[in-house]
Structures are given as C-alpha cells and as structure tokens.
Amino acid sequence: MNYVFVSSHLFYCTITFHFFPTYKIVYFSSHKHNSHMKKDSSFTDCISSFRTLSLTLVAINRVLLAQYASFPINGADLYDELLSSTAILSTGNESLDKLLDSGLYTGEVTELIGSPGSGKTQVCLGVAANVACELKRNVVYIDSTGGLSASRLLEIVKSKVSTAEQQLDALRRIYVTEVFDIFSMLKVLQTLRTGGFPESPSGSSSLKAVIVDSVRAVLLPVIGGNQIEGLSLMMQLAGELRMISRDFCVAVLVTNHVIRESNGAVKPGLGRSWSHVPRTRILLQHVNSEMTTQNGLRRATLLKSSRQPCQISEEFCLGSWNHHKVVKEAKEDSIPEEAH
After folding, report:
1. Do 56 and 97 lie in a common domain?
2. What are the C-alpha distances in Å from 33 to residues 1, 36, 38, 97, 336?
3. pTM exceeds cut of 0.85
4. Most buried residue, 56, 182, 270, 337, by most Cβ within 10 Å?
5. In a domain, 189, yes or no
6. CA angle (192 as vertex; 132, 198 as ends), nearest 5
C-alpha cells in the first residue's frame, strides 16, 4: 500500500509550554497497481482538512500569545502603572513610618528582624490593627509561632476605635491562620494567590496586607542538616510571597531572627539566599536604658532599602499603638476582654 503523510509544524509558545500536535492525514490506495487512479474528490477533501487544521493551529497560537506572551512596554507606561497600583499603608507608628518612607508599600516584601523579645510580634499586631481600624482594609495574619495574643490585639483595637460595633468590624477584617510547617504555609499562600482572598461586603477583594510571623519557624526545620530540598522550599516560599505582593498589590510583612557573629555584630537569619527576598529590612533592638523595662523602648534600624539611606534609626515605644487617638466612651460600649 502507498501512504501519504501530512504533518503539522512544531508549535511553540513563549511561556515555556510546548505543544506537539501531530495530525496525520492518511490516504492510501486499495491496491498497488491502481494507485494512480485515486479519486480527485478524496484528495481535495484531504487538502481541505489539512488547511482547516492549519488554520485552527494558527488561531490557537494567536490566542495563547495574546494571553501569555510578554510584550514590550515603555518606561512611562510602566511608571504610570506603578503609580496606579501602589499604595502606602501606615504602620500606625510615626517612627516606623519615617524609616519606611511613609509606611509599608504594596507590591513589596518588608522584613522585621530581631532577637527573641525584641518586639517583632508586637509590631505585627500593631500594623494589623492599624490597617483594619484606620484604613478599613482586610489583613491576613499567618502565625507560625503561636505568639499571637487575641487579648493584646483587642487592646490595640480598643485604643483606636471606641464603640463595640467598630471594634467588632475591625476584628472581622483580621483573618488569622496558624501554620506550623512549611507545607501548610505554602498551602495557605497558594490559596490566597489562586483567589482565596477575603472578600469585602461589596464583593471585591479588600485585602491589603499579609503578615507572616515568622518565616524562620517553618524554614529552620527544613534547611538544617542534610535536607537538600530545604533551599528549594525556601525559594518556593519566597516566590509565593513575591507573587502575592506584586500580582495583587498587597503589602507583605514577614519576621525573621538574627544571628550574632563572633565580633558581636548581628545579621539576618536564613542565609544569603533569603537575604535578597525582602525589599526592605528593619532591625529591632532593645534600647540600653534604665527605663527600657518599664516603657518597652526599642530602636529600629533600617538595614536595607531602595528609597532611604541605610543605617538610619528611630526609637519608639512598643506601647505607642495604644496611645493613638483614644475616644473615651462608656465602658459598656466596648468589647469585654474576657469575651476573647
């Protein structure tokens, strides 16, 4: 028998998806000696089918390129897009806002580092309360250390809004989830990235801050010893945080520990690979003062920033979030502590 094979060309898309559709149109004769007596109509149908398949492939190619391929954009358009999508979220603390050039920027990862007891969790609670109370935006708080105190969060919220209704509304905007391993952390972040964002009453997503306290707690068990997959998991976590911040215009705040070197200097934990993940890094330290124990005085030092000079520092009190414009109301108008 004689066979006629017609195959389509290789199909390639710029997003690294490869398609290899090979359409074979087979025409054969029933006998060797009458192979030259093919019907013209059958051959015409064969060519027509091939043309249809070719046009279909071209159409699919155009759709995929339009949807996934990268296109050049000039600097002016890119800058306008940045301005329209970037928001600055106040932390609720003037000293921190000054270091951060007005506050936390959406589309970026900001890192707080410090030794145990330096106040990282207190700052995270203050930021969450301020975004929920003052900006009236949703916050996702991922707690991997079990250090979140509901009573402390309520205390900060009470200092910002006066009535029980306002306090409940603010608390409803803070979504808390506990994770204690890297895989649970990745699952939560992937859920957020794929559309699991908290919805506002109007139906549109109003999430503006994701707080992770802390990345060290879930990464340390997998990057120690001979676990070679630890670095891969760390980079996967970094990628998820970056994509959430960039694609959904969300400010991401994470906490990390510090390592003290032999000369007494401190550096961020998790090594060199992680050091490139946050756009901004702040070191929290105790202030050597006799009043430190009484007033919770801390020094915040800017270690990494693309907008401010590094190594500048500010001092502030951890209780400063409690002294923000308190409106005195009757005690019964606020949520009782024991209810939480």
Report:
1. no
2. 10, 8, 11, 89, 98
3. no
4. 182
5. yes
6. 40
Cα separation, 265 vs 46, whole angstroms: 77
Q: What's the CATH code of the domain at 132?
A: 3.40.50.300
Are 8 and 153 within one domain?
A: no
Nearest to 297 by CA among 283, 280, 277, 317: 317
Query: Rounded to an integer, what distance in angstroms lies between the CA atom of residue 319 and that of residue 299?
Result: 13
Instruction: Single out the residue of 302, 310, 300, 306 nearest to residue 119, CA to CA.
Output: 300
The count of structural domains within the chain is 2
Together in a domain, 95 and 190: yes
**31/148 same-domain check:** no
Domain that holds residue 20: 3-68
Residue 255: name the closest of 217, 298, 309, 208 by CA: 217
pLDDT tens per residue across all 340 residues of the chain: 444 433 434 333 433 444 444 444 334 444 444 555 455 567 677 777 777 878 888 888 888 887 777 778 888 887 787 777 788 999 999 999 999 999 999 999 999 999 998 999 999 999 999 999 999 999 999 999 988 989 999 999 999 988 899 999 999 999 999 999 999 999 999 998 887 666 544 334 588 999 999 899 999 888 876 667 888 899 999 999 999 999 889 999 999 999 888 887 888 989 888 999 999 999 999 887 555 455 688 999 999 998 999 999 999 988 877 654 444 343 444 455 443 3
Same domain assignment for residues 63 and 92: no
Per-residue DSSP letters for 166-195? HHHHHHHTEEEEE--SHHHHHHHHHHHHTT
78 within domain boundaries: no
Separation CA 206–CA 17 (nearest Å):
33
- What is each CA distance from 60 to 19, 27, 66, 295, in whole angstroms? 11, 26, 10, 65
Residues 52 and 178 grouped into a single domain: no
* Same structural domain, 118 and 44: no
Q: Using CA atoms, how far apart are residues 269 and 256, in angstroms rounded to an integer? A: 7
Alpha-carbon gap, residue 133 to 173, rounded angstroms: 9
Q: Say if 137 falls within a structural domain.
A: yes
Please give the distance of CA 142 from its chain centroid, rounded to a whole number: 12
